[in-house]
Design a protein that fits this description.
This protein has about 575 residues and is an alpha+beta fold. The chain is built from 24 helices and 9 strands.
Length: about 575
């Protein structure tokens, strides 16, 4: 394991300053680097943010400004809608800002993974969370963010939004600074301009010598909210000057199909004249709250505080470890969360998931039952209870758990797929096919649904239908299991050449996939290609030397090869 004295940039497995272990591959952006680290002193996961070496070399004062802006962020303290900044540490002269790690990625990542424009109520929840974060920052005297965009909004495991990167964009700019920072951000241009991202910057931010304030943030928020509701940005250009003209002169498109009041708010935020925009995020929050109540009939959610906030923070720390497959280390954080708030359903579920990952199924089941006792309409608890019961062999109870999850959320495609797995074991392939059809009606690109439908058709000896399903599964996910099962279906149809092609495709994905090796060996065996079959069997035996069937097959091939050498049966 390397330490900080070896090199200036670190990789997974390295140790920074003999304290912070890099536990994931670094995230490298246009100018910045984020290392996900395990703090060995405090036993928690953090995000260590700094800038790329060439950015610091561009201007020696950038490091000082980075620390100054980081200090303002650190002073914000804890809030459910702000990524918490803990402290600054220096390693080899480079400043690192140690941040709360939020493992679910950014709002941009979420948008890219979503199938289309989101429910306006969901957009309102994100907007309210954002306003709460910005209102907290304003109460702590932080004047402006300066670089609002989906990439700077992170999502927790519960789907809450947290604002990040307060003021760090400003650390890269100063009045009269003419060096080309734009080249480092991937934006070609002439001189460095005020902080921000062109796609989201207010018209006045493009002016030399301008600084970000609350109304420039309001404009950037308007661009982001427009994008959430319409699924595209209101202004498009290819160059910095093109964006400057678009933001200054182009009229934003209408928001078709969006609540009229909400659309008016978005366009007010996008006013060209800063004075015409909402004055601050408190004003925007009030408007969003009215829209939320009109659309849902419920009051808009308020930020959580006190022990509930402390419990949520402990729960998220556990999630950080779990996302890195360090489930044993996640468990104490879930326990601490439940000490603060024994009624925190998500902590019970997350603790159960961690125990399940450790194959401690009985303990996991206890956690899920506790969550259900607190809220019997929590579909995730029922879903995970089904997984635990299936692992424990209690198939009828597992089936009931999945059915209960589907009563609560009929669109849960993963519950339908897992239900099909139980139906396979209960020898109910027709019902499994019906469950997979329901899942595919929700998402026809779900490889697991195609795969499990193929398994059910195979159980019914409907091999052409099975092959059709497996082809769809590999088209969506290139699953080695689907390739192998497709080979089995071709073998059942007495088509050994196609079977071999499928087994080879599975082995290209994983050369040590034992089922494909065994089935390829059997096919070659039946074709009389004994040497090739023997090679497959021996490779499979090296992976699992306790499998008596593999030893039997090897002996059978050796006997056949001996007969070919000496048909009379004498010693070869």
């Amino acid at each position: 394991m390397r330490t900080e004295s070896v090199e200036r940039n670190w990789s997974k497995g390295d140790l920074i300053a003999d304290r912070w272990e890099v536990v994931d591959e670094p995230l490298i952006g246009g100018m910045g680097i984020v290392y996900v680290v395990a703090d060995r002193l405090l036993n928690e996961i953090l995000a260590a943010k700094t800038y790329r070496e060439e950015v610091f070399q561009l201007d020696p004062t950038i490091a000082r400004r980075f620390v100054e802006e980081a200090a303002l962020w650190i002073d914000l303290d804890a809030h459910p809608n702000v990524v918490e900044a803990r402290y600054v540490h220096r390693a080899e002269g480079k400043p690192f800002l140690m941040l709360e790690y939020v493992p679910n990625g950014s709002l941009r990542t979420w948008m890219l993974s979503a199938p289309g424009a989101i429910d306006p109520v969901h957009a309102l929840r994100f907007g309210l969370d954002f306003c709460h974060g910005m209102m907290h920052a304003a109460a702590k005297q932080l004047r402006a963010h300066g670089d609002i965009k989906p990439e700077n909004c992170l999502l927790t495991g519960n789907g809450n939004l947290k604002v990040t990167d307060f003021g760090l964009a400003r650390a890269l700019t100063q009045p009269g600074h003419d060096r080309s920072l734009e080249a480092h951000s991937g934006h070609p241009g002439s001189r460095a301009k005020p902080a921000g991202s062109w796609e989201y910057m207010a018209p006045e931010q493009f002016e030399t010598g301008s600084t970000a304030d609350i109304r420039t943030d309001v404009y950037s928020f308007g661009v982001m909210l427009f994008e959430l509701l319409a699924w595209y940005r209101p202004f498009h250009a290819k160059t910095r000057d093109g964006y400057a003209r678009a933001h200054a002169f182009d009229k934003p498109p209408p928001l078709d199909g969006v609540d009229a009041g909400l659309a008016r708010l978005v366009h007010a935020c996008l006013a060209k004249d800063a004075v015409a925009r909402p004055a601050d995020f408190s004003e925007i929050r009030e408007y969003l709250a009215r829209c939320f109540q009109a659309l849902t009939g419920r009051p808009a959610p308020e930020p959580i505080v006190g022990q509930v906030l402390d419990a949520a923070r402990m729960n998220e720390k556990g999630v950080c470890f779990a996302r890195l497959d360090r489930n044993r280390e996640a468990l104490p954080w879930y326990d601490r969360a439940l000490e603060y708030d024994p009624g925190l359903v998500t902590a019970w579920i997350n603790k159960g998931v961690a125990l399940a990952a450790l194959q401690e199924w009985t303990g996991a089941l206890t956690c899920y039952d506790q969550a259900i006792e607190l809220d019997d309409r929590e579909s995730k608890a029922w879903f995970n209870k089904g997984i635990a019961l299936r692992a424990l062999g209690e198939l009828e109870r597992a089936l009931h758990a999945y059915d209960r999850a589907l009563e609560i959320d009929p669109q849960d495609k993963h519950a339908l797929v897992n239900k099909a797995l139980v139906l396979h074991k209960l020898d109910r392939p027709q019902d499994a096919i019906a469950a997979c059809k329901r899942a595919l009606a929700i998402d026809d690109r779900l490889p697991e649904a195609w795969y499990n439908k193929g398994v059910a058709h195979g159980m019914l000896h409907e091999y052409p239908d099975a092959i059709h399903c497996y082809r769809n599964a590999v088209a969506q996910g290139n699953m080695k299991q689907a390739w192998c099962n497709m080979g089995n279906a071709h073998a059942a149809l007495e088509d050994p050449e196609e079977a071999l092609a499928c087994y080879n495709a599975a082995l290209r994905i994983d050369e040590d996939y034992e089922p494909a090796l065994l089935n390829k060996g059997r096919t070659l065996h039946l074709m009389g290609a004994y040497e090739a079959a023997l090679d497959c069997y021996r490779r499979a035996l090296a992976l699992d030397d306790r499998n008596p069937l593999t030893r039997l097959l090897i002996q059978h091939v050796l006997d056949r090869l001996a007969q070919e050498v000496d048909p009379a049966g004498g010693p070869p």
